[in-house]
Amino acid sequence: xxxxxxxxxxxxxxxxxxxxxxxxxxxxxxxxxxxxxxxxxxxxxxxxxxxxxxxxxxxxxxxxxxxxxxxxxxxxxxxxxxxxxxxxxxxxxxxxxxxxxxxxxxxxxxxxxxxxxxxxxxxxxxxxxxxxxxxxxxxxxxxxxxxxxxxxxxxxxxxxxxxxx
Length: 165
Prior knowledge:
The protein is an alpha/beta fold. It has helices at 19-30, 50-58, 72-75, 90-94, 121-144, 152-163; strands spanning 7-13, 35-41, 84-87, 105-108.
């Protein structure tokens, strides 16, 4: 963690249709070029949830390039080498992940699945906004860390603590 190159971050969720997409977009905007965020799923849905896109648009977050994709895409030769990997749903936290080159620092930042919310359109949209708000706050905390000054153990501790907030 001592170079001036941007950090590569992967957000993983099972379906890669909501939470990981939200996190990817939020970090790409808030990271202001210091971070390149990506998202993937162990069992991607194949499409981004429309309410995830609507939520990002309402928050003025980028949606260009948002797509549901497999984590296998990032385990292949030529894929970015990740500095950080965050699981954002309970299912992905317990799954066997691919072996990632470069020994990225990982943490679990579980968020309730807004796509599983039933009810009115208003209630469902609120669930997406709540998930985005939680991820936004965690990403802000992540961005405030003095990454280049933290030793590995301290960094892992801080990232786990963020996931519990």
